Amino acid sequence: xxxxxxxxxxxxxxxxxxxxxxxxxxxxxxxxxxxxxxxxxxxxxxxxxxxxxxxxxxxxxxxxxxxxxxxxxxxxxxxxxxxxxxxxxxxxxxxxxxxxxxxxxxxxxxxxxxxxxxxxxxxxxxxxxxxxxxxxxxxxxxxxxxxxxxxxxxxxxxxxxxxxxxxxxxxxxxxxxxxxxxxxxxxxxxxxxxxxxxxxxxxxxxxxxxxxxxxxxxxxxxxxxxxxxxxxxxxxxxxxxxxxxxxxxxxxxxxxxxxxxxxxxxxxxxxxxxxxxxxxxxxxxxxxxxxxxxxxxxxxxxxxxxxxxxxxxxxxxxxxxxxxxxxxxxxxxxxxxxxxxxxxxxxxxxxxxxxxxxxxxxxxxxxxxxxxxxxxxxxxxxxxxxxxxxxxxxxxxxxxxxxxxxxxxxxxxxxxxxxxxxxxxxxxxxxxxxxxxxxxxxxxxxxxxxxxxx
Length: 454
Prior knowledge:
Layout: H1 17-26, E1 28-31, H2 37-54, H3 61-64, H4 68-73, H5 75-85, E2 90-91, E3 96-100, E4 146-151, E5 156-157, E6 164-166, E7 181-182, E8 186-187, E9 192-196, E10 201-202, E11 212-220, H6 250-260, H7 275-281, H8 287-299, H9 303-311, E12 323-325, E13 331-335, H10 353-361, H11 366-373, H12 378-391, H13 399-405, H14 411-424, H15 432-440
Helix pairs in contact: 6-8, 7-8, 8-10, 9-10, 10-12, 11-12, 12-14, 13-14
């Protein structure tokens, strides 16, 4: 359920239509928590003491500094999260303090630079990246199922190295040449950035003489939307006036808007591009083009063509990871993501674009997706399961078919089937016997550690 303030019965301050549209297009919102400013000063002192005088707390930083709950529970922040992730959102147990220490030598840097040198002991990756799920991988979603909160307890001028983000990049399959870079001249004390989980972002060097601290939170949606969870007055999608990206994605953004309203997709106008050309653009490097084609094909209800496109990915062992190697050439439990291949990994899995399109087709794709669940290739099964989960409650009758995948010898298939059953969220009784077997049976082949993070 939504987190309420322990200090008073204050209702969440829900977002308005313009703010939700900004989040959909830009991928983030800048919030000012409605708390006494002295709270930020107190939290800043506690974070500094904990990190500099005690130890690394990792996920336990909120237990060490419970007053961080007051930031998340204040009406402005709580209301924004509820507006995007629903009233029953989950405060994920993964948290972290991002530490940015001063660099020894100052350099003149562009805002777009990839991987500049950071200060010794910094815990803030300066290369452009999208976050991994923790501790193990899950799929990347276009709709807002996971959110990140970046909280700055102290004022952070440009000289101190605020975290950079690329507006509009949250729907990308992977980072590309930087554009729409947001790097403020100053981040006021107490600022809370609510960000789509898959946003491309990066640290920036600290050229001041004081360490910068920022606290990261994660939030997750627990239910599929059936109606707007914000102060919704307008039924139609409109490009927001405060849109930062230089491109326009009416098919994609409109789909997300109507999904958040609990509605099926709505036609956005006449398409001048052929279905064949849209299919050719799928999985391409041009991110706006692939996104436009993904959701244009969904509007065209090209279900069978999309299924055939997905099936062409069979036979490549894409359900298996490609591991990185150490200096001796030995594999290590870390993914080799060079070239950003579409395959299973233990960071975050980008499904085939045909899969996102099939999910956006809605109930009309369910029968075809159930057929694909029985495909011999595990990667096709994984993609079909994901799409059924994205369709949500209309796919409740598919739970029995998904439950059969819980007996797969491939842990990747089992994990995606479980996520899909959870995303559907209703009618899970047919899966309960198989889930019980998973909980009560030991599979030694699945005991090997998959990652080096926790």
